[in-house]
Structure formats: structure tokens, C-alpha cells
Amino acid sequence: LHAKDFVDLSLAKSRRVVIVGAGKTALDCVANVVSSRAAASITMLYRQAHWPVPRKVLGMGIRKLLFNRAMAGMMAPYY
């Protein structure tokens, strides 16, 4: 069943649900099924995990913001 056709949560009632992909639509479907507690189990299948963040924040590249000495200083010492 394609995500565009998944409008009735009763279709997942007491079933094992498999979500293929990890994009926004897939995460919306997972959120709906989890919040309704309709499915017996939910499994997500995807090729590679990704972290959906913008490439730039306030005009600066995300790598420049995250991978610098200031960020390292904000982390707990055991990292």
C-alpha cells in the first residue's frame, strides 16, 4: 500500500506493518500508526540512515558549525 493511499488507520489494526523508506512521508506514516497503537508491530526498512538537517544555518555550513573547538568544548568530557 502506498503512503498516499494510507488514509484509514484501521487498515493497520492488529497487523505487522512494514514501512519501506525513511523519508518524511514514511516518518509521517510511522508516527500515525504508533500514536494510534493500532499495529501489532512496526518495522522500517531503509538503505542508509540519514540525519535530516539543513546544509546551511544562518549562512554558515553545518560542518563549520558542528566541527569546531567551541562545539568540542560544549560536549561532556567523556566524549
Total helices: the number is 3
Describe the largest sheet.
Answer: 2 strands, parallel
Give the % helix. 25-40%
Radius of gyration: 18 Å
Number of DSSP strands? 4
Which geometry do the CA atoms define? elongated
In percent terms, what proportion of residues is strand? 15-25%
Q: State the end-to-end distance.
A: 43 Å
Secondary-structure element series: EHEEEHH
Poorly predicted tracts of residues: none
Write the layout of secondary structure elements.
Blueprint: E1 16-20, H1 24-36, E2 41-45, E3 56-57, E4 60-61, H2 62-66, H3 69-74
Parallel strand pairs: 1-2
Antiparallel strand pairs: 3-4
Task: Describe, in plain words, how this protein is organized in 3D.
The model has no long low-confidence stretch (mean pLDDT 85). The protein is α+β, with helices and mostly antiparallel strands. The strands form 2 sheets. The protein has a two-stranded parallel ribbon with strand order 1-2. It has 3 helices and 4 strands, in the order βαβββαα. Helix 1 (24-36) links the parallel strand 1 (16-20) and strand 2 (41-45). It is elongated.
Which properties best describe this structure?
79 residues; alpha+beta; two-stranded parallel sheet; two-stranded antiparallel sheet; 3 helices; 4 strands; 30% helix
Can I get a quick summary?
This protein has 79 residues and is an alpha+beta fold. It is built from 3 helices and 4 strands. The strands form 2 sheets. It has a two-stranded parallel ribbon with strand order 1-2.
